[in-house]
Amino acid sequence: MNTPTLVASLIMAALLALLIAFLIRQMMRGWLHRAQRQAELIGTLPPLPDTVGPAIVAATKGLYVGSTLVPHWNDKVAAGDLGFRAKAVMTRYPEGIMLQRSGAGPIWIPDESITAVRTERGIAGKALTHDGILAIRWRLPSGAEIDTGFRADDRAEYDRWLEEKA
Questions:
Q1: E-assigned strands of the chain?
Q2: Which of 24, 33, 92, 147 could be joined to 57 by an S-S link, Cβ 3.0–4.6 Å?
């Protein structure tokens, strides 16, 4: 390789690296702006209860997929840590649903806030060929409604969740 070709290759590589860095920066900036816009709409999440009764639906292991604003299944919530996927265990109690996530704080969904529990084909960046996402629609203390998505390791466990609350 001669010197002019080497210099041109290095310049092109540097320009490509700058372009990639710029695009990543813009994506991060967009995510932060979305979180700021949604922060007031989402408000604070319900506090964890001091005590709960015996589990109605035993712990189900799986993946917390994320939460979306109703009625848009692809408008992912970025406020707080609701937008990040995490391994999770979901348990149903008479007082509500506890979603314990690894690497993030737990989510408590009070029973009176739940409006629907159903299966979906997709939610916010996660699409499956069958009804593989358990979607819990609930109302936040701020009044906004969101869908929280959970993909169980064993899809057969969805029947227990669907029988419990409609």
A1: 57-69, 86-93, 96-101, 107-110, 114-120, 122-123, 126-127, 133-139, 145-152
A2: 92
Which residue, 109, 163, 102, is CA-closest to 141? 109
Q: What number is the average pLDDT over the span 1-14?
A: 86
Q: pTM for this structure? A: 0.74
- What is the C-alpha to C-alpha distance for residues 161 and 103, in angstroms, rounded to an integer? 24
- For residue 105, the one-letter residue type is G
Give 21's pLDDT tier (boundaries 50, 70, 90): very high
Q: Which of 123, 126, 86, 77 is nearest to 105 (CA)?
A: 86
Number of Cβ atoms within 10 Å of the Cβ of 92: 24
